[in-house]
Amino acid sequence: MDDQKHIDNDRQGIPMPKDGVPNAFDDEAVDDVEIESYNDDADSGSSTTPEDQIKRLRNKLRECTKEKTANLDGWQRAKADFVNYRKREEEGKAEFLKFAGEGVIDDLLPVLESFHSAFANKEAWERVDPAWRNGVEYIHTQLLQILREHGLSEINPEGEDFDPNEHTSVGVVPTDDKARNHKIAEVIQLGYRLNGRLLCSPRVKIYGEPAAPKHEADKPG
């Protein structure tokens, strides 16, 4: 009887293990099921023509290309923004370093002006003991050299045209020479720049036409 069952199972294509009990999860059986399922899927999609498949692929490719272009544009914009940001940071840092010592230099300007005032009074300066005079002049030279190395420059516009944006007028020197009108006759106080930026304008006297004499009728009676 058992032999008959074994024969019937063989006829049906069901593999029998050594113990005579059929294994529903045998590898060959699973492969058969997968192959049949794949064939069923292929049969069910047989209504899709190759032209439809090509059309879908083209649409998909078009979408992928559009997405790639959008991502590339976004990346390029982000890169450009980052480069501009780095450039602004470097420029800001350089600007900060250029004028970082402005406060200290600004505090030293009155000291320089004291030197200038002392040297301007030549008669009094010549009466100072030569040893002291040479020492003070050397200190002034050293201080000015250090400040120049940090970007400070003096403004001494004597003889130049008066510029109200650059100079401060504190008086007029009368002259009959019209060619001298509005030219700087005397520098009362030097001006200074730091790396091209105006720290303080020079105080000057400018040439101008002499005041018109009063007529006898204008004199008080």
TrEMBL record:
Record's compositionally biased regions (Acidic residues): 25-43
Main subcellular location: cytoplasm
Any Gene Ontology biological process: protein folding
Gene3D superfamilies: 3.90.20.20, Head domain of nucleotide exchange factor GrpE (2.30.22.10)
Region annotated Disordered, chain positions: 1-53
Location in or out of the cell: Cytoplasm
Biased composition (Basic and acidic residues): 1-11
Chain's role: Participates actively in the response to hyperosmotic and heat shock by preventing the aggregation of stress-denatured proteins, in association with DnaK and GrpE. It is the nucleotide exchange factor for DnaK and may function as a thermosensor. Unfolded proteins bind initially to DnaJ; upon interaction with the DnaJ-bound protein, DnaK hydrolyzes its bound ATP, resulting in the formation of a stable complex. GrpE releases ADP from DnaK; ATP binding to DnaK triggers the release of the substrate protein, thus completing the reaction cycle.
HAMAP family: GrpE
Protein family (similarity comment): Belongs to the GrpE family.
Name by which UniProt lists this protein: Protein GrpE
